[in-house]
Every structure is written in structure tokens, then in C-alpha cells.
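Re-run with default settings, no changes from the original entry. Doing this only to confirm the output is reproducible before filing.
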Amino acid sequence: MKFLNSFGLCAVLLSIAAGCGQTGPDSGKADAKYNGLVLNEIAAHDEITDAVSWVEIVNSSSESKSLDGLSLYVSDAYFTDQSIATLSGSLAAGERLLLSTEDGTLRTGVASNAPFTLVLGTSPTKAADSYTRSEDGPSLGLFASYQRIPDATGEWRKLTYSSQGKANEIFDISKTKPTAVWTWGSHMKDLLANDAANLKSLKDKGYDHIILNFAAFSNQGNIPTAKRFMQKANELGLVVHVWMQAFYNGGWISPIDDTNKCFKEEIFASIREEAAEYIENWGVKGVHLDYIRFGGTASKHDHSNEVNSVAAVNRCCKEIREICDGFDEGLITSAALMPEPNSTHYYGQSPVQMSKYIHILMPMIYRYGSYNFSDSAFQERSNYFARQAAKGGGVSWSGIQTYDASTVGMSAEAMRKDIDLMAATDASGIVLFRYQLGTFPDVNDLWN
């Protein structure tokens, strides 16, 4: 049973549907002095254990508005026209007010897996604005919300990522710096320590993208930390991509049944489902495919024009792109590539064909150790992948090491030298492997 100031314990229902019910109650209008005060974003998480529900109200007018006399009312399976927040004071033009169960300004949560109506008004029947989640409306993952798009004025829709305290908008990667860091789940605690000092440092130095290993979300011991990490990253404007392992799980997983000379449908289905769950449950804005290749034996699995290693890699890329595009939220696909040109024979990776589906190729051009690239060879590989990606309609961000052949972290000066070499090529960005090795230099001046 639901009580004020407590959370319901209902199962989470997942939905990729984008539309939300938006019809309000058949009621009168509140006094005209409240015109422009709108419900703008609703995070209804009461069915998720220990989650926070919150509602954002925006003054969309061009003048200050009084809140005195207004309340927020809910009608759902538990309450009918119940006041759950009492407003006072005023909101300046464009200002946002957040009501949350976390600080008690919202006296009860709201569940997204059942119908409900919220009314902002002087009474339940005198509304300045209202929102209704219909019977068939989509439920929310932990970081999702119902939002007005465009901000404060548009139609309601569900997004898998929220924009608490900021303008509602569809993610646009062009508004970010093309700089990323590969990060393990075990790194989250260090990044969050001391009020997220190291996470803030990455952002301040110009690194806008975190490619976070899937273990951060799939390992039960990491989940409380992952919740805090995702919230803090979103607050700081960092873009988190889930780093998946496509054809590898402690050992290589072939997506081809060599006996029957056909694809293993269960492998592709598992990858699709995994990607959709990370997006829906965690609000990631990118899906990064690592091990999207064969372990050096690709040609042994080439059985026909339809069933072969390149076709398997391309199919996986295509299906992940379709999953991301299906959300219609600006979600980005990326993939890690081996740094060798013409690698279809060994790995099944064709950069041109992969980039028809993958937004960003991330070739691992690790110059120290096995490859021992000279400066010129280092740049040549970067140019090769950038030009191949362009042929397929994508771009390439060059992946580089942050440590030397002895696995000793590089100085900021040495790392910046390698970054500058990449910036002088046709690459559109850089990806550093990895966090906690080396001293990262400031890169705010690059790719402006």
C-alpha cells in the first residue's frame, strides 16, 4: 500500500515506446495570473525501490510569476486529487522549480507503470497545467523521465535520459567535444571520490565522453555506485556510453554456426537485448561495441556470400544501430577496431562497411608495444581509418594509449604530443585508453 513519503515496491515495466499520454482532467483553468507556469519534466519512479521521484515546473512566460496559492495534486491507484506539494514564492521568467521526494518538497512518489494524473493548480479542478500518463503509456527506467520537447513549450514524450534542472532537449553529439576516455567499472569509485573531483577534472580538461565498461551495470556490487556515477555524469554534462563486448565473454564467441553454415541467432538476439536494457535502464547515450570481430580466425568462418565473418560483424553493427535509432533520442553507436588495414581476413572488420551503421569508428592505434609505430606510421593509420569511415558515411576517433611499452603512465606532455599528432590527421576526435594510467592533458583547444 502506498503512503505519503514512502515508495511503492512494484516491478519495473520496460518500454521502448516514445509517446506519452498528455491529456489532462476535464477541468477549469486557474487564474490567468498563473499563465506560463507549466509542468515541464516528470520523473515518476515510485515503483523502483529506493528511487527518487521528482517534478520540474518552469515559468515559460517573459515575466515573474507568483506561486502562492498553487499546489500539485495527484490522482492514481492510491489517491484521488491528493495534494502532494504546496508552492509559494515566485519564479522568474525561465526559472525552474524542482519538487522531489529526496528533500520532501514532493510528499509522495508517483509510479510510471500505471495511469496517473498530475495537476498544477489552485485546486484539482482549477489547473494551470496538467499531465496524464495513460493506461498504455510507457514506463520509465531509473534515469528516464517524461519531458516537454521543445523545452517548456512542446509536446510530452518519454526520454531514457533526464535533464533535471536543465533545458529539455534531444541529445546532439555535435554540441560535445570529440574526446573520450575508456573507463572500467572499477574506476567509478575513484572518479566519484572527494565530491567527484576526478570526474570534474576530466570535464574541465575537455573530455566530454566516458566509455564505461558494461560491468559497471551488470555486476550487482557495482550498481549502487553506478547509480551515483550516472547521476553525477549527467549533472556535469558528461556523455556516458556503455562499453559492450560483442563476440567475447572471457573467451571468443563465434556468431557463426560452422556445422550448419548459418548465423547463431541467439548471439545476435542477446546483444540486441543487452544494448536495449542499458539504454532503457541506465539512460546511456551511446553504445560502444568492443570485440566486434573474430580473434584472428575470421576467414575460417566464411561459408558463403551471405554467411561469413564480415557479414556477421556488419549485421551486429546494423542491428545495434537500429536499436539506437528506434529510441529516436540522438543515441550514438561506436566500435573498437584493430589498427591493421585490410583486416577482414583475420578479424572480419571492414571499416567502410561498418561505418554505414556505426557513427564513430574507434581504431585502437596503440603505438607502444607490439606495433611500435613511428610518428609517421602513427598518423598514417589515423588517416587510413578516418578516410575509410568517411567512405561509409561515418567518422573516426583515433584510440591511443596513455601508457608506454612498460605499462607506465605517460606524462601530460608526452600524451599531448601523441594527441597533437592525431589532431593533425583526418581523425575527428580521440579516445584515450585508459583512465588511471598517465596524466591527462588539457584538450579544450582541440577540434573547436
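The CA atoms of residues 177 and 447 lie 7 Å apart. The first strand starts at residue 28 and ends at 29.
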